[in-house]
Design a protein that fits this description.
Length: about 400
């Protein structure tokens, strides 16, 4: 802060430089002060903020050696240039610089110690261990026009994915089908009942993921490629294939999708097993790619009407819960369904998997019960009237 600057100007310049704004400019100095804060201490960060003055950093950041900290070296750390040590300003652990920092001195400092570079963007040198993963979960209990529009949007979105991205497909109605990709000349799928909840172990055993189909153990076989930290790089299994290998077959498979074949009687809703389909999708990624980034993209055209996660029964004479029902706590399925989706959200979040919900329907689809799937995992929630509308089509393509 210069003598000509006011404190307000200084704060503004810091915000403009780093893209960070805090709710308070001073940290509470005691636990008592922290409890008296009317507004919680919070930070608003602007990712990808343009900084033309930032130098290109083509090496990995230096982090604190303490396993419970791992803070990154920054201008606020105390540095002993003679002993080649730095003190973490979060946990006060003393750390040694790596060998490549042997030449540092007060006159020769790396960018991460220069005050004007309090924000840096590192280009990580190590290769990405696992490509992006997209698992599509598609509701087939829709009208023909709706399903046709959704299929066309999904086929178009395949061309927008990276060639090495892993893609998978699950469809559901009364039953759930996990489609095997890469089969030449034949369509194969594994069918699950829509009234039963499946644990990760059950999904793993029923799909054969522990028998060479995909990695489930922390130790890989000799010679298997390894990623950061010596962890084995998992191969693609038959349900999650690279786009460049299954593009044509998946396009054909999407084009051949039909409405759920189970008949719907007059005065009844179609039996839609949304909760079980999501449970199987979460279990598939848990068993195949734990602790890897992945997205479960769920496309729903109505409310779940059977099985775990059910939000309404199949009788049309019984409407889905209203605002008045919620206020009076007079809802048959709310608590049980919410607990089911909360559990799925936690499982996905623990493994780094996001759940997206694309719901296009004139009727309610149960987003109240399913909201944790997006809120807890960092997923997208898109609600519209129709997959055939301009917004519906754009959402399916642009959110990939």
């Amino acid at each position: 802060m210069t003598a000509a600057q006011t404190y307000q100007d200084y704060i503004q310049s810091q915000e403009d430089r780093d893209g960070v704004r805090l709710s308070w400019n001073v940290w509470p100095s005691s636990r008592l002060e922290a409890t008296r804060m009317v507004v919680p201490l919070a930070s608003l960060y602007t990712p990808l903020k343009e900084r033309p003055d930032l130098p290109p950093i083509q090496y990995d950041p230096v982090t604190c050696a303490r396993q419970t900290c791992k803070a990154v070296l920054n201008p606020m750390c105390q540095v002993d240039f003679r002993a080649k040590l730095w003190v973490c300003n979060f946990c006060f652990n003393r750390n040694t610089f790596p060998p490549q920092y042997a030449a540092i001195s007060e006159q020769n400092q790396p960018a991460e110690l220069i005050p004007q570079f309090s924000t840096l963007e590192y280009t990580i040198t190590r290769a990405q261990a696992v490509p992006p993963i997209f698992l599509m979960v598609v509701d087939t209990c829709m009208d023909e026009d709706e399903l046709k529009a959704l299929k066309e949007s999904l086929q178009m979105s395949l061309s927008l994915l990276p060639a090495n991205a892993l893609i998978g497909l699950i469809t559901f109605g009364k039953m759930i089908q996990v489609h095997e990709l890469g089969c030449e000349g034949i369509s194969r799928s594994y069918v699950f009942r829509g009234t039963k909840d499946y644990s990760t172990k059950m999904v793993q055993e029923m799909l054969g993921l522990g028998k060479g189909g995909g990695p489930v153990a922390p130790q890989g076989p000799p010679g298997q490629a390894r990623g950061p930290g010596g962890q084995p790089v998992p191969p693609a299994n038959k349900f999650l294939q690279p786009v460049h290998k299954c593009d044509m077959s998946l396009t054909d498979l999407l084009g051949e999708l039909q409405r759920d074949p189970w008949p719907v009687s007059t005065g009844k809703r179609p039996l839609r097993s949304t909760g079980v389909a999501l449970s199987i999708a979460v279990g598939l990624l848990e068993a195949s790619y734990p602790n890897c980034g992945g997205r479960i993209m769920t496309f729903v055209g109505g409310a779940a009407s059977q099985g775990p996660g059910q939000v309404v029964d199949d009788e049309l004479k019984n409407p889905i819960r209203s605002h008045h029902d919620i206020e009076k706590d007079n809802i048959k399925f709310l608590k049980k369904a919410t607990k089911h989706y909360d559990t799925l959200a936690k499982r996905a979040s623990d493994n780094g998997h996001a759940i997206d919900l694309y719901t296009c329907s004139l009727d309610q689809t149960g987003l109240l019960e399913m909201k944790a799937c997006c809120n807890m995992t960092g997923g997208n929630m898109v609600m519209g009237d129709s997959f055939n509308s301009k917004i519906g089509r754009a959402s399916c393509r642009e959110r990939v």
